[in-house]
């Protein structure tokens, strides 16, 4: 169907929207294409959300708490921060949009890797932010020396997506110190899957650097992608800017159910640590199984792996997996067109993936 855009603004006509991973509507698929958690959320989070619905006295007829104070306090307690160092929004995508609006609409360019979360260029286009792409090295790692140039901001996903590679904390510190007058954003959507998350995360640096913003999400390690909760940690001056921008755009971003479920998830530390550890074990086993089939797999600190198989077309492998009911993510960009991004599934899902890949390769040979 053709679209009549005669009533659209010039900006709307010229947008190139982000294309999310496919959400197929068919049953019995092994869905390994959107990096969702293979395990359910905390039972305590589910009970907390059910309690909101069961509260006939007020439940959903009242507006939610506009600043999500209880959730923010739970996050502050968990990370050893003050309430004024924590911000929450409707998914990390909204948080990142507010970050772009607050800190990057300036004169000098925003620096970002040439291969990273593909929503960043979309945000930049939406908000009119000039960007400069910095090529990753041949091994897909970030070379911070290439970021030693004039800019008004830097944004990095760490671990990076879709590569899964982790930038060491010492490199992050050096990068931030290079640019005291520019805001550096470290997008830690997958950081909880690092082997030693306390050493890998940059949250501990926000009191050392007043130009640092850390973004995270409940969608991955806390298995609440359907709830849409994201957060940012930063110096109170930067949090104040995000809050002002939020209240000029969407003053009630999180509903009562989301606030209750997210808060209970943060407080259920035992469940969180157990499921996080299980996914890390599954990632390592999946990496070994893929390597045994001849794949080259990049080092990953996320809940996915980035893999390539010499002399095989990645798009073709992706299509043939789909025919067998297994969905993975293939990107068409030139530098990564030979790679597949494969989310870590349950043991049964990973075994099915390896079974189908083994069959595909046996036919080819």
TrEMBL record:
Reaction catalysed by this enzyme: L-histidinol phosphate + 2-oxoglutarate = 3-(imidazol-4-yl)-2-oxopropyl phosphate + L-glutamate
PROSITE patterns: AA_TRANSFER_CLASS_2
Signal peptide, first to last residue: none
Any single GO BP term: L-histidine biosynthetic process
Record-annotated Aminotransferase class I/classII large domain positions: 28-357
EC number: 2.6.1.9
Classification via InterPro entries: Aminotrans_II_pyridoxalP_BS (IPR001917), Aminotransferase_I/II_large (IPR004839), HisP_aminotrans (IPR005861), HistidinolP_aminotransfase (IPR050106), PyrdxlP-dep_Trfase (IPR015424), PyrdxlP-dep_Trfase_major (IPR015421), PyrdxlP-dep_Trfase_small (IPR015422)
Assigned keywords, A-Z: Amino-acid biosynthesis, Aminotransferase, Histidine biosynthesis, Pyridoxal phosphate, Transferase
CDD domains, sorted: AAT_like
Cofactor: pyridoxal 5'-phosphate
Subunit annotation: Homodimer.
PANTHER family, sorted: HISTIDINOL-PHOSPHATE AMINOTRANSFERASE (PTHR43643:SF3), HISTIDINOL-PHOSPHATE AMINOTRANSFERASE 2 (PTHR43643)
Stated name of the protein: Histidinol-phosphate aminotransferase
